[in-house]
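Bug #77: duplicate submission created two jobs. Keeping one. Sequence:
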Amino acid sequence: MSEPRPSRALELIAGSEGTTDRSEMAPVRPAVAHEAEDEARPILLRDILAAPAPATEWIVPGVLAVGGIGILGAEYYLGKSTLLAGLGAHVGVGRSFLGFDVTRALPVLYWQAEGSRRLFAERVACACFHAGIDIQTLDFAFPPADLLLPFDSADFARFVIESGRKLVIADSLGYFHDGDENSASDWKKRVMKPLMAISRAHGVSFLFAHHYVKPSDNRQGRHKIRGTSAIGADCDLVMRLEAPDGELATERRLIFDKVKDAAEQPALTLSFDKGKALFTREGVAPASDEVGEKRRKLIADMKGRIESTLTAQPNLSGRQLFELTRGSRAIFDAALGELKRDILVIGEPGPRGSILWKKALVSAADRVTE
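Kept job's structure:
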């Protein structure tokens, strides 16, 4: 599918630049889209079943999908910001995290709204050092200092879209949601609909850090997450971080309450080293520099094979291209993602909803010099 023009998501969020009445926000685009001039019409069940089944595209297979919206809830000071930043850093370099594969490197935006940005940036750098991640090549960014925009503003959508970031982590949710957090209608109108408009049009994934409610016998399990129950119902990914032995102990439990379109994920036992700002999982060693370098070489080799294949045989589907290049699916996805990011290959709509890949006529380097 060709990239929609940036203003499309803005139009879905607000009808015009000056819109202040959020009740007039345009709805997200329908699940089944037709050409603008076609009249919308029902689709028969048999036709839906006869069409090729859409495959879920993952950033972290079985956990976080491309365009997915997820939330991590926890008490204060248990390390939820550190955990999300660690995940973001590993996505930024395309390396596995806590035993979960990361399909490819993606540019990350960490939108921190609490605490000192300098101190937090130092903790992220510390975690990267101990995880063997080179921050000089890490595509992990922050917004300008003191820039805080609500999710349902056109300025937020414009900043995210123009930044080119594909994973946005908002810490914490309350600073970006101006409505009543206990109102399902406010949540849908001011959070889900604006973010879904961006994610559908541009493939951006969102993760939020959020707090628990005050301890209560009536709020257990996934209901510990503060706010309306629509938060858990609407998000694609719902996680909780807990400290079974208290915040001073190192053990943490990462609980997956919901993962959309994937098998149920068991809870993980993690160890949190506050001094290193590092989470580890028993039996899973952090990816070392040696492992990362090997992966980078495999991706570089795969990029060359993809380009050579498309030079000889343009207009191949992703499946055909994968079969011809012969390699790991994760390495193939990472290589194709980097080539697409650098505008070295382009994908155009093909038959039956497929994407046909070919080399770009002008290289990214040539564009820089133009």
